[in-house]
Amino acid sequence: MEATKKQTQTHFVLAHGACHGAWCWHKLKPLLESHGHKVNALDLSASSINMKKIEALRTLYDYREPLMEVMKSLPPGEKVVLVGHNVSGLNLALAMDKFSQKISVAVFLTAFMPDAVHKPSFVIKQVQII
Predict the structure, then answer these.
(1) Which of 16, 19, 78, 112 is least surrounded by Cβ atoms within 10 Å, i.e. has the fewest?
(2) With contact defined as beta carbons under 8 Å apart, do 34 and 41 qualify?
(3) What are the phi and psi torsion angles at 77 (to 5°)?
(4) Of 37, 103, 48, 47, which is closest to residue 70 (Cα–Cα)?
(5) Residue 14: enclosing H or E segment and its boundaries?
């Protein structure tokens, strides 16, 4: 009798970079899903099909709101692999500050990456872009 291998499903949350949308993950998302993983590729505020107007965004906090909503909606005990491209490194840093218990790993794909000494949002607060 052969033992069956239990597939471990990983939940990926994909955050796009500047001038992109969830569409930029169109090759990665189905590949991960075909291996049994759960994938959320989201449109940040005023990006792609997100209907928020760019004029309504005053801070980086406004821009990253869809990511924070996904993180908030995760059930207790669930952890995700958070992937951010380009400017979404800043969004990942903010999510890491607020939802560290819900993130198993953060992947910075050619993105701003915080250092290991300060809180992830340290640089953002230093340059006051929020």
Answers:
(1) 19
(2) no
(3) 90, -15
(4) 103
(5) strand 11-15
